[in-house]
Amino acid sequence: MTVRTAWITGASSGFGAASVERFVAGGWRVIASARRAERLQPLVERHGAERVHVAAFDIRDEAAMRSAHAALPPAFAGVDLLVNNAGLALGTAPAQQADLAQWKQMIDTNVTALVTLTRLLLPTLIERRGAIVNISSTASTYPYPGGNVYGGTKAFVSQFSLGLRSDLHGTGVRVTSVEPGMAQTEFTLVRTGGDQAASDRLYAGAQPITAGDIAETLWWIATLPPHLNINRIELMPVSQSFAGFQVHRD
Ligand code: NDP
Ligand code: 8X3
Fold it and tell me: Does a structural domain hold residue 168?
């Protein structure tokens, strides 16, 4: 049986780390990328260099990304699935108080790096009739106070996914936007600048989505029969739903 290869970004934690395990368990090769090499290297020790290739770089650094791509071992060079998962939210301040540097970091990571890696891999993905799974968010559709630029980046990811589908019409390449709601990972720790208590409070008693839930969803999407495309999929924990508009009164 042909062994397929997935490039999973943000593989050092959360959804990405769980997805590496799922795809390796399913018999795939995985290129695991993120900045924290010390979190990625054990994957090679655990699964073997023929199953996992580590590419440790800052995804905002285009030159580093191109070098990592050029340095892929031959067995990993034909990418069948790109999981654009690396991303982050920083802060929850209202726009008028937000830190512009944090906004730019979210745009550089969630948008610019995502389109750069996608563009780099498109020729291979087309040649192999592969697939792209972009990790968006419920924040792409439902605004909330303090979500400003984070939600904007995810709206871009969702719309870019649909646009890609349109452009890739006839190539056989599948494109999916995965839009999770509240999931317990390091996401809130990162968003709050390392406030573990705030992260624990957010998830306490809520039975949030787990990283394993998302890994299973990605596995399902990637292993559907090749004539099926999931355009977008939105997931929430049962404990999370919608609330009304806010009204300010004079
Ligand atoms: P984590 O913080 O656990 O994981 C984020 C991953 O992104 C890490 O592996 C991190 O690696 C990587 N990353 C961040 N910045 C960079 C960078 N500059 N260069 C390379 N890699 C980077 O969070 P999640 O697993 O929850 O997040 C994964 C994706 O899911 C994100 O796009 C997030 O927006 C999205 N999402 C999360 C939800 C949630 O509630 N948790 C819900 C909906 C969507 P490292 O720091 O080692 O570089
Ligand atoms: C993460 C979900 O609601 O924190 O994308 O924005 S939320």
Answer: yes
Domain CATH for 63: 3.40.50.720
pTM of the model: 0.98
Nearest CA to ligand 1 atom 6: 10
Q: Are 100 and 93 in contact (CB under 8 A)?
A: no
Question: Of 190, 176, 58, 178, nearest to 113 (Cα)?
Answer: 58
Q: Which two tokens stand for residue 2?
A: 């042909």
H or E, element range at 136: none
Torsion of CA 35, 37, 40, 42, to 10 degrees: -170
* Residue 240 resides in a domain: no
User: What size, in residues, is the chain?
Assistant: 250
Q: Which of 135, 187, 199 to mutate to test the pocket of ligand 2 (most atoms within 8 A of CB)?
A: 187
Residue 85 CB less than 6 A away from ligand 2: no
ipTM value greater than 0.85: yes
